[in-house]
Amino acid sequence: MKTMAISAFKARALQVVAQVARSKERVVITKHGKPMAQLVPYSSLARTSVPGKLASALVFEKDIVSPLGAKTWEAAH
What we know:
It is built from three helices and three strands. The chain is α+β, with helices and mostly antiparallel strands.
């Protein structure tokens, strides 16, 4: 990841944007050595949520009280 002072970015913004689009490398824009912004390449692959994607990761128990016992279950509340 490259870094660039904000004054240099201001002077060459169009060139830097074109370079990021070409190389797909991010550029961090700094002011007095501190990161202020990040220029990232555009990605048309939108991350969308998929309903039920994690359904196989869950385990459903029919009775969650009995394995602990009623006394332990009450103490957990």
